[in-house]
Design goal:
Layout: H1 2-5, H2 13-37, H3 45-69
Length: about 70
């Protein structure tokens, strides 16, 4: 997430936001895995974890692809 946020001002706004949001969603996915595994298992954990994981990866890949397309 820190690396994604450090891209601010160095890439297009669209690329920055897609990667930053994707990284945050990916971090949220990993956090939910840890929370579900140890202190507080919760209902619907699997779909929530996979949903944030997939959207996070999509955001990261799309943002990096837009960076390349923009020629940066």
């Amino acid at each position: 997430v820190t690396t994604a946020i450090n891209r601010f001002g160095r890439v297009s706004e669209l690329s920055f936001w897609a990667v930053a949001i994707g990284a945050i969603l990916f971090m949220l996915s990993d956090s939910m895995i840890a929370i579900n595994k140890w202190p507080y298992p919760f209902e619907m954990a699997s779909p929530m974890i996979m949903g944030t994981y997939i959207l996070g990866q999509l955001g990261i890949v799309a943002g990096l692809s837009w960076q390349v397309i923009d020629g940066e």
